Amino acid sequence: MPVQNVTPILNVSDVEAYVAWFRKVGWREGFLWRDNPGDHVSFGSVCSGADGNAAEIFLCLNGQGSRGTIMPHFPGDDVTDGVWMSWWVESPAEVDALHASALAQGLVVTYPPTNEPWGVREFHLRHPDGHMFRVSAGIGEH
Fold first, then answer.
1. Cα-flanking dihedrals φ and ψ of residue 110, to 5°?
2. Residue 105: in which H helix or E strand, if any?
């Protein structure tokens, strides 16, 4: 049977804080789940893209995988054992715009926008829980 979609699940320290972080780079809240009224949010999601064609990431409070550890003495390092994920956008101009927005909001960029020899322009964005996102777009045939 062919797979129709894949939804990654990230282990996070605070679901609502993670949703707020994702909003800074253009994602929106998908859903939030509390086990009981008044509890902290224990599960949720963020979405990007048009409804019906959205990318979605599930967020699980303290479970379903591990968070990354980072070297606090080297905030610009690409060193993390958290989840690495590629986000594909339409154009290199969008990569640059998202990079500028991330810097303006004080997010941790560990690798600046770079045209790679394998035909993409990308930068690396790290969440405080140690997960790393490669924001990429194709730059032509190589």
1. -100, -10
2. none
Radius of gyration of the chain (CA): 16
Q: In this structure, are strands 55-61 and 120-126 parallel, antiparallel, or unpaired? A: unpaired
Cα–Cα distance for residue pair 126/119, rounded to 1 Å: 22
Q: Residue 70: name the closest of 14, 140, 125, 126 by CA.
A: 126
Q: What is the pTM of this model?
A: 0.83
| Long-range contacts, 45-50 (Cβ 8 Å, 24+) | 45/7, 46/18, 46/19, 46/22, 48/87
More confident residue, 130 or 50: 130
pLDDT digit string, tens, across residues 101-134 = 999 999 999 999 999 999 999 999 998 888 999 9
Q: Which residue has the tokens 């086990």?
A: 35
- Kindly state the DSSP code that residue 40 receives in the 8-state scheme: P
Burial of 108 (0-12, 13-18, 19+ CB in 10 A): middle
**Please, what is the end-to-end C-alpha distance for the chain in angstroms?**
33
Quick one: how far is CA 73 from the chain centroid? 22
